[in-house]
Specification:
Elements (H helix, E strand, L loop, with lengths): L8 H12 L6 E5 L6 H13 L13 H7 L6 E4 L5 H13 L4 H15 L15 H15 L9 H19 L8 H11 L8 E5 L7 H12 L5 E7 L7 H4 L3 E4 L5 H10 L11 H6 L8 H18 L6 H7 L6 H16 L8 H18 L5 H24 L3 H14 L2
Parallel strand pairs: 1-4, 1-5, 2-3, 3-4
Helix pairs in contact: 2-3, 4-5, 4-7, 5-6, 6-7, 8-9, 13-14, 13-15, 13-16, 15-16, 15-18, 16-17, 17-18
């Protein structure tokens, strides 16, 4: 087990020891930076817990449970929480186009897409099925396309390139519909699911970016963690262990994942993505170059809006370096930046042909920019608190649109107005 957890020897050794001795706790906290292998470890642990072999967890185990876990199709696995999916899907698509005949390339591509697909499991929308309406056709289309990359399917280089080109825009649209923080109704849905007996040996719940959960969801999760059924394991993945509430930390055992240095990053790039040289010094840089970025007008215009909001604040109070650098890029007022956003987004969804993501895309772009600022090591507590307050305004806008059906343009105007007033 954990042979795929590269350059995380300490975490892999501790996990393997606890698994082998039967001393795994009900709740595990995987703490470490983005792209450090936390999800890979969580999925491998879930496979081991469900393995039906006499000596469970062997890397090449061919039992039906292991096969379904490798394909991310096991009914006893639930994965939720926000994540950047598009960059990994793009990188996996590049490998698929280079080596469509290789099983490993197909495996990587299929799993990359299904990591996103897992966020739309009907289990997570139990009682909230109406929230799946926008995603339903995208999910159906992606399911059909990803089947073309299965090992049994015939696929040549040109077909693989065409397949990747079809999948990526659909994946980006679907990614825009993933909640930026696990909502309380999903926690309640998973709590109902975990009370049902597993179809196999064990159930595993994996929550990514658990440190971004808001108070209502945190409190609901705490209730679920207090008395989990004996055959259920929770794996919480977090970049900032200190952002987890103390009562959840007290019920978790922490496994630390270290930042990957250039040598470790090159190992991942060579073995997993089989990236051709020259290789960047970090896995983060490799994936960032494949993420939707400067070419995305909605993200660009949202960044301009945030810059203008920060520029207003800079005239009153000094800003931490990352915020000050973004503010210095501002060339317009918040009102002017908002007008440009309306044009880029089709008035936040009134014209879906102008911007497929509409309001959802804007809100996700806003929180993405906040996350970038918070991750910068030069960002202090005050700036982190500001980002948290602005993210709370995003969550409020998303809720009011879903629950009260308020018009997207009015919601965005209210969000910007409140952000300008935030102390």
């Amino acid at each position: 087990m954990f042979e795929n957890l590269l350059a995380q020897d300490e975490a892999a050794s501790l996990l393997l020891s606890d698994f082998s001795t039967g001393s795994l706790p009900p709740t595990l906290l995987f703490a470490g930076p983005a792209n450090s292998g936390k999800l890979s470890a969580a999925l491998e642990l879930a496979r081991g817990l469900s393995c039906e072999a006499a000596a469970p967890g062997a890397w090449n185990c061919a039992c039906s449970a292991c096969e379904r876990h490798r394909a991310l199709l096991h009914p006893d696995l639930l994965v939720l929480g926000p994540k950047a999916f598009s960059a990994e899907i793009a990188a996996a698509g590049e490998l698929l186009a280079r080596a469509p005949e290789q099983k490993a390339a197909r495996f990587l591509f299929v799993r990359a897409v299904r990591k996103l697909r897992a966020r739309f499991s009907p289990v997570l929308y139990d009682g909230e099925e109406s929230r799946l309406v926008k995603a339903a056709q995208l999910v159906q289309d992606l399911d059909a396309l990803v089947d073309e990359a299965e090992p049994r399917a015939r696929l040549d280089a040109s077909g693989a390139a065409a397949l990747s080109a079809k999948v990526l825009p659909l994946a980006r649209k679907l990614e825009s519909l993933v909640p930026d923080a696990v909502p309380v109704w999903q926690v309640r849905a998973l709590e109902r699911w975990m009370r049902i007996a597993p179809s196999g040996l064990a159930k595993t719940v994996v929550i990514e970016n658990a440190d971004r959960m808001l108070d209502g969801a945190r409190n609901a999760l705490l209730k679920a963690l207090e008395e989990p059924p004996p055959r259920v394991r929770f794996v919480l993945c977090a970049e900032r262990r200190g952002a987890m509430i103390a009562t959840i930390l007290s019920r978790s055992r922490t496994y630390r994942f270290r930042p990957r240095d250039p040598e470790a990053s090159r190992l991942v790039l060579e073995r997993v993505f089989r990236a051709p040289p020259p290789l960047p010094d970090s896995l983060d840089a490799f994936l960032a170059s494949r993420a939707p970025g400067g070419s995305d007008p909605l993200l660009d215009r949202t960044r301009d809006l945030v810059a203008s909001l920060l520029a207003e604040r800079a005239s009153l109070d000094p800003l931490d370096p990352p915020l000050a650098e973004l503010a210095a890029r501002s060339t317009s007022s918040p009102d002017e930046a908002l007008d440009a956003l309306r044009e880029a987004s089709g008035d936040f969804g009134k014209d879906e042909d102008a911007a497929s993501a509409g309001l959802a895309g804007f809100l996700k772009a806003f929180t993405t920019i906040m996350r970038e600022l918070v991750r910068d090591a030069r960002t202090g507590p005050g700036a982190v608190a500001l980002a948290s307050r602005w993210n709370a305004l995003v969550a409020e806008a998303r809720r009011d649109h879903a629950v009260f059906k308020l018009a997207p343009p009015a919601l965005v105007e209210r969000l910007v107005s409140a952000a300008r007033k935030t102390a």
